[in-house]
Amino acid sequence: MNAYDNSIQQYQTLNRYAKVGATVILGGSEDLNIPVGELKQSFELETTIYNRSVAELTVARAADVYDAVVAPLRPSTLILRLGQADLELFGKNAGEFAREYRELIAHVRRQNRGCEIVVVSLSNPDASQTIVAMNASLREIAAASRCSFEDVDAAFSGESDAMKETVSFVYSLGFVSQLPWKKPVHNLARILYGRRFDQINERNNNKNIDKNARRLNLTTVSFL
Known about the structure:
Elements: H1 3-15, E1 23-27, H2 36-42, E2 49-51, H3 59-70, E3 77-81, H4 87-92, H5 94-111, E4 116-120, H6 129-144, E5 148-150, H7 161-173, H8 188-193, H9 197-205, H10 211-216
Parallel strand pairs: 1-2, 1-3, 3-4, 4-5
């Protein structure tokens, strides 16, 4: 069994215990290790969140993944963060990428008309011009499809500085700290994607984690 089939099988098993009407993340390799449980607890989010991301997931294959592991959950909100595995396709044929992405959104809406869809940009720490162009395309796709759009590289500018400081504090400690305020669901993408994945993965792979984290035995959950 390959990694793709193994992920689908694990998610289908977890779906037996999942609640319908939750928020679901559908992304690719960079999204696998989002610490959903920790962030939900830290920010006292009032929504159930499941991560159904699959490594190297392309937009063309995303509809099949949606049908297999997301549609049964009948999500109230779907966070889409796709495109990393499609950079080569986008460079050759940006129009085809946009068409496939719009078809994916239409596919979701045919099955779940009430689902709020949030399109999330790719992070671009190296200022790749291909990613700049793709993110512009994603913004246009979201607008044309009447979806929300979140720019992860601009998520914490201006009035969001306080949230950035809070997220930095949580991750610098290496474990969850309860916060005295709640954020509505529409800020969820900013909470989930406010830190660059290289920083998150570095923390997850660091063997010398904080003593408090070891005492609490906290780990990142890949398949919530």
